[in-house]
Automatic annotation (TrEMBL):
It is an enzyme of class 7 (translocase). The chain crosses the membrane at residues 85-118, 273-294, 759-785, 797-819, 831-850, 862-881. This is Magnesium-transporting ATPase, P-type 1. The keyword RNA-binding does not apply. It holds the Pfam family Cation_ATPase_N. It is found in: Cell inner membrane. Keywords: ATP-binding, Cell inner membrane, Cell membrane, Hydrolase, Magnesium, Membrane, Nucleotide-binding, Phosphoprotein, Translocase, Transmembrane, Transmembrane helix. Mediates magnesium influx to the cytosol. Its EC number is 7.2.2.14. It comes from the Bacteria. It comes from Streptomyces globisporus. One of its GO terms (molecular function) is hydrolase activity. It is a multi-pass membrane protein.
Length: 913
């Protein structure tokens, strides 16, 4: 244990240094002493006064990274102009203004303004909702403060944002280091600082008074007395003083506001690819229209406003608004109904796309509290002393390591040892020993050691080591034959589904110095404690639901292969169409595989046993490389690398701080049923966005094709630029209904995947059908308006086509909404209402005083009768085309998904019988 004495002086309260550690003193090589650091910060080991902390908070600001500060609404509004579609619209509006087409320019700018206003408002509202949700899982820190100068220091939990330089904090396993700190005391402290350095192994930290000269050239992260914001405590405990907060930390400087950014999901990449394809086509449209009209009709720049309007007609300018609104509503509904918090809105997309879910079994498939089944010696004979010594280790590890809660295995051991009544003669009483020191468990050593003093044995310390069987045996003094025999015994027990802890002892001469892992050698093996896992009652049903949704479950655990395989078999979880050893892979095999080989193995196997944190992260990365969209559910420090490697990191609300901070989604509790509901919410959002893109772009493309064709066939423009833009504005308003739609059940059966090639084929096919209906309207207009001529005929033509366009778009919204049955298609309440409103505007607008202002006149009754026939034929053709498309692209689960469901049901049935 390293520490500094109490009573270091604190200087004037007004003096505070708010910079990074290097700002406290120039450089890390020489570095200040610990006392100099405390004086420079105006603090001491007893902590700050509450009043002084409030003054410093007002002066330095909240302990929040710059990237996390709320974005003001005006800045968000200006930033929305950077959207590709918005930028193209602005350019088209400027071109219209340059050729004095003021009407076209004004309507385009109005479209841009409305789109940016809606988008920035929805994003601002979504950010406020997300921030409110994040506060439900806000990370806190244990700070030491005093109410007055003569009062004793008192520990209390405060939000991380309220920490200030000079605060003294406590660090425990699972804590996220909340700021840049210097250690005052450290007891077996190790931290993960991969967010800053990329190193995967935990780093040992100590409370040195001076910098280590041997590490002078290695940089600040190698100095053991410093811990930095973004690191996570993996083991041990410590006390530290904060030297930098907020934007002055090393994390803020190293990441430059980019910390926490995620890679684009497959859905985002697909939407981006489709968007840029449309943008290229939009940019090509005006010059093509100008050249065609000049060559065939002898028209010049007077057709430029029409060409610009046609290009605008292709633009899904409501896409950012729809995406933001849909995700925000989905996240809010999920939090309200299921207690699931989505910290990053785009993660809702990724949740809907998840087809591989990786998780540990403890607390998810099995109860958090295992039950001790037996305690035996090396000859497999019952021995109560093995359980008692295991309880000694558990008790003093909990107390001396300053752990917030006991490990589930330790709790089971202590409960079993305490429930057997008073110890009999010759057995071990855990309460009769005095704890001296502890080496807490960590995922690398895989053991925990408690050093105790036995009654009546002066000058002797007893080391009690408990942990994984292989790790304990490696530390015992025994020959290879005996080790192999004990490993075989442990394997037989583990194959029956038991979890095992090995226990060993060693006596050492007492000493005052600190104990290290080097002392865990030459131990005497005592025996094995066997524990039995109890499956979670809801796990089997939840696994069945996930299988029906096409989500494969992979179990990544540190347990023995037999233990994990037994639980999975009981729950009916195995690889589709496979059995035997192919289902279970050990970490030793993973170590022998290249990254390319691991991709195939990870796809086939269901259980990965004996996994370290690095194994978990590598397996998740391999599943992603194989084309899967991965989710990872974890709650401990050892899950941190895998949480960051997955497309979606998921953790329960009671997870350790570092896991909560790294996760994208936080569950109210560690429950597979909640994950199923979250996946459904993600698929609803993705389904609505995909439906918006399909319907909007197929309709827009059909209108553009028809207008380009009509522009070359008619002696006048088929629609005036202002009419095109007003029509587009009406359609945009109706499209907002997509954000409020409840997609049909067929959309929820599998992830929504937008493959650009298939998507463009869809919108091209239905766009051509829409163009055919538009062109058929020519004949109707020619028949209904054969006596009209001059400007009156053009105005009537414009009105007729304006009405027909909005009516066909309303039909598309209703008939192309994804749904495999009549009941599903009738369920789209918001879309049906929006389509009815759009149709009403299309019929009524030419008849209002606004009609003549836009260059439209009233139409004869005959036109409406003929138009009804065209629309009826179009509806029949649209329905037939949709059914043909559905036959070629069934929305039911794929054969692989059906096979997985069948395998799950077969395994469940076999277990039941």
């Amino acid at each position: 244990m390293n520490s500094v004495p109490e009573g270091s002086p604190a200087t004037a309260p007004g003096h505070v240094t708010t910079g990074a550690p290097a700002a406290v003193v120039p450089g890390f090589d020489a570095g200040p002493t610990l006392l100099q650091t405390l004086r420079a910060l105006g603090t001491g080991p007893r902590g700050l006064l509450e009043a002084e902390a409030e003054i410093r908070l007002a002066r330095t600001g909240e302990n929040v990274l710059p990237a996390r500060r709320p974005v003001p609404w005006p800045r968000r509004f200006l930033r929305s102009f950077l959207d590709p579609f918005t930028a193209v619209l602005l350019c088209l509006g400027l071109v219209s203004a340059l050729v004095t087409a003021w009407g076209t320019a004004c309507v385009i700018l109005a479209l841009v303004a409305v789109s940016c206003l809606l988008r920035s408002t929805e994003e601002h509202r979504a950010d406020r909702s997300t921030q409110a949700l994040r506060e439900l899982v806000a990370t806190t820190a244990t700070v030491v403060r005093r109410s007055s100068g003569d009062s004793p220091p008192r520990e209390r939990e405060v939000p991380v944002a309220d920490l200030v330089p000079g605060d003294v904090i406590r660090l425990r396993p699972g804590d996220l280091v909340p700021a840049d700190v210097r250690l005052l005391r450290a007891d077996g402290l190790t931290v993960h600082q991969s967010a800053l350095t990329g190193e995967s192994a935990p780093v040992v930290k100590q409370a040195l008074d001076l910098a280590d000269p041997a590490l002078s050239g290695a940089g600040p992260f190698a100095q053991p007395q410093w811990c930095f914001q973004g690191s996570g405590v993996t083991s041990g405990s410590g006390t530290a003083v904060i030297v930098a907060t907020g934007g002055e930390t090393r994390l803020a400087a190293a990441h430059d506001g980019r910390a926490g950014q995620q890679r684009a999901s497959a859905f985002d990449r697909s939407v981006r690819g489709i968007s840029w394809t449309l943008i290229r086509f939009m940019l090509l449209t005006p010059p093509l229209v100008l050249m065609a009209n000049a060559a065939l009709r002898g028209r010049g720049l007077e057709t430029l406003p029409f060409a610009v309007a046609v290009a605008v007609g292709l633009t899904p300018e409501m896409l950012p608004v729809i995406v933001t609104t849909t995700l925000a509503r989905g996240a809010a509904r999920l939090a309200r109904t299921s207690g699931v918090i989505v910290k990053r809105l785009p993660a809702l997309h990724d949740l809907g796309a998840v087809d591989v879910l990786c998780l540990d079994k403890t607390g998810t498939l099995t109860e958090d509290r295992p039950v001790v089944a037996a305690a035996t010696d090396g000859r497999d004979q019952a021995d109560p002393d093995v359980l008692r010594w295991a309880a000694v280790n558990a008790l003093w590890t909990l107390q001396l390591a300053d752990l917030p809660t006991a490990d589930a295995l330790d709790e089971a051991v202590m409960d079993a040892a305490g429930g057997d009544g008073p110890p009999s003669a010759g057995t071990v009483d855990p309460d009769a020993y005095e704890g001296v020191a502890v080496l807490p468990f960590d995922p690398v050593r895989r053991v925990a050691t408690a050093v105790v003093r036995r009654p009546g044995r002066l000058g002797v310390h007893t080391l009690v080591t408990k942990g994984a069987v292989e790790a304990v045996l490696d530390r015992c003094a025994m020959d290879g034959e005996e080790r192999d025999r004990l490993l075989a015994l442990a394997d037989r027990k583990a194959a029956s589904g038991l979890r095992l802890l090995a226990v060993a002892l060693a006596d050492r001469a007492s000493r005052a110095g600190a104990y290290t892992s080097a002392d865990e050698r030459g131990l005497t093996f005592l025996g094995l404690v066997a524990l039995r896992d109890v499956p979670v009652p809801s796990a089997a049903d939840a696994l069945g639901e996930l299988a029906r949704r096409g989500v494969r479950v992979k179990v990544l655990t540190g347990d023995h292969p037999g233990t994990a395989a037994r639980v999975c078999a009981d729950l009916g979880l195995r690889a589709e169409g496979r059995s035997g050893t192919d289902d279970v892979v050990t970490a030793e095999l993973v170590d022998t595989l290249s990254d390319a080989e691991l991709v195939g193995v990870a796809d086939r196997a269901v259980v990965f046993a004996r996994c370290t944190p690095e194994h978990k992260a590598r397996i998740v990365s391999a599943l992603r490389s194989g084309g899967g969209t991965t989710g990872f559910l974890g709650d401990g420090v050892n899950d941190l690398p895998a949480l960051r490697a997955a497309d979606v990191g998921i953790c329960p609300r009671n997870a350790v701080d570092v896991a909560r901070e790294a996760a994208d989604v936080v569950l109210a509790e560690k429950d597979l049923t909640a994950i199923d509901r979250a996946v459904l919410a993600g698929r609803r959002s993705s389904g609505n966005i995909a439906a918006y893109l399909r319907i909007t772009l197929s309709s827009n493309l059909g209108n553009v094709i028809a207008m380009l064709t009509a522009g070359l066939m008619l002696p006048f423009l088929p629609m005036l630029p202002a009419q095109v833009l007003v029509q587009n504005l009406c359609f945009d308003a109706a499209q907002l209904a997509f954000a409020f739609d409840r997609p049909p059940a067929s959309v929820l059966r599998r992830p929504t995947v937008l493959r650009p090639r298939d998507f463009l084929r869809f919108i091209t096919g239905f766009g051509l059908l829409n163009a055919a209906a538009d062109l058929a309207t020519f004949g109707v207009l020619a028949l209904a308006l054969h006596n009209a001529s001059g400007d009156g005929g053009e105005a009537a033509f414009h009105a007729g086509w304006f009405t027909e366009n909005l009516l066909t778009q309303a039909l598309v919204m209703v008939l192309l909404r994804t749904g495999r049955s009549a009941v599903e298609r009738r369920a789209g309440g918001p879309l049906r209402a929006a389509a009815a409103g759009l149709a009403a505007v299309g019929v009524a607008l030419p008849l209002t005083p606004l009609g003549p202002f836009l260059g439209m006149s009233a139409l004869p009754p005959l036109y409406y009768l003929l138009l009804g026939s065209v629309l009826g034929l179009y509806a029949v053709g649209l329905t037939a085309a949709r059914r043909r498309y559905e036959r070629r692209h069934p929305a039911d689960a794929s054969e692989a998904v059906k096979e997985r469901v069948g395998a799950w049901r077969g395994a469940r049935s076999a277990r039941t019988h």
